[in-house]
Amino acid sequence: MKQIYLDYAATTPVVKEVYDEMKDYFLKNYGNTSSLHILGQNADEKVEKVREKIKQKLNAKDHKVIFTSGGTESNNLAIKGLVYANKEKKHIIISKIEHDCILKTAKFLEKQGYEVTYLNVDKEGFIDLKQLEKSIKKETILVSIMHANNEIGTLQNLKEIGKICKEKKVLFHTDACQSFTKEKIDLEEFNIDLITINAHKIYGPKGIGALVIKNGIKLTPLLHGGGHEYGFRSGTLNVPAIIGFGKAIDVISKEDIKKMIDLRNYMIKEILKKIPTSKLNGPTENRLCNNLNFLFNYIEGESILLQLDMEGICISTGSACSSNTLETNHVANAIGIPKDKANGIIRISLGIETTKEETDIFIEKLIKIVKRLTDMSPLTK
Ligand SMILES: Cc1ncc(COP(=O)(O)O)c(C=O)c1O
Prior knowledge:
This protein is α/β, with parallel strands linked by helices. The protein has helices spanning about 15-25, 40-60, 70-85, 100-110, 130-135, 160-170, 240-250, 255-275, 300-310, 330-335, 340, 355-375; strands at about 5, 65-70, 90-95, 115-120, 140-145, 170-175, 195-200, 210-215, 280, 290-295, 315, 345-350. It is built from 12 helices and 12 strands. Helix 4 links the parallel strand 3 and strand 4. The chain is globular and about 70 Å long. Pyridoxal-5'-phosphate binds near residues 71, 99, 101 and 177.
């Protein structure tokens, strides 16, 4: 059975050109970037090139790139690192639909006496800029608002958020794990002080990411040791992964994005038309190019997922990282979906390899599965 993968927001495969570029750094150019000999210096030179490439991609004129183990670590370092290094201010602002690695970091800090404001979102997932403005106070050190939501694809207006943060003189961090290389991000134009990115959502390897921070920002490191990464993140650099990350930046083209948008819009239209119990979650405009999220009345998303899986099709119910827990979905809650309906949600995310033929097979199978489950559901009786 040919597998149809529609879960690119959870992770992507490493594409051949990225894999090929990495190989030499396992087998031949395996030097430690801190070593003074030629093997070490060669590795260091390549890593510095990737740092520059990331800065260029983000138009980061006055920033440092700190390599980390991925989005989770970057987000933890951004928030904990910043508040621990600036003890006099104890208030941060995030939204209710942040990824768990931001939400749980905020909860952890609350237990230590920090104050957190959780901004509401509307039914499409957008924060209210007025509420943001009003929430900023003297004690506020940081506003952290994600760019693209990983579940419903909402793209926040980074430019407007950055403007408010600049006027109010608070730092602005954004988690751009889902949008990096898919959406325009300009650190200068959007006034972003700190940004989180990672490689495994853009056809690079897992376990590598970066926190890009404005020069002059103080952070308390989470990992102490040899003083790597400007002293912010000790540990021998994962050179092959960094090389892969650098190459992955070029993978998604403008044409790929256009193709994903067209396929996404086609699928939304078809599903809404052919499945009367379906409802689209998330926005119709300002939506991440590869994201779809649907609610089906009367049935469970998990049952849809398992039946699709038996047909060789991979999708997700909430975010992949939390779908193995029984916690209610915080994004669904925040956009006003009642608890009893939130179990009926599935997320479909497209990749550069996704074809129209695959989406047609998916839609055909989905229609049958939803019909079968709805017919069996006691809620329709
Ligand atoms: C928006 C967002 N932030 C952070 C992460 C965590 O990134 P990583 O898996 O690299 O730790 C993810 C991945 O699921 C994500 O989608």
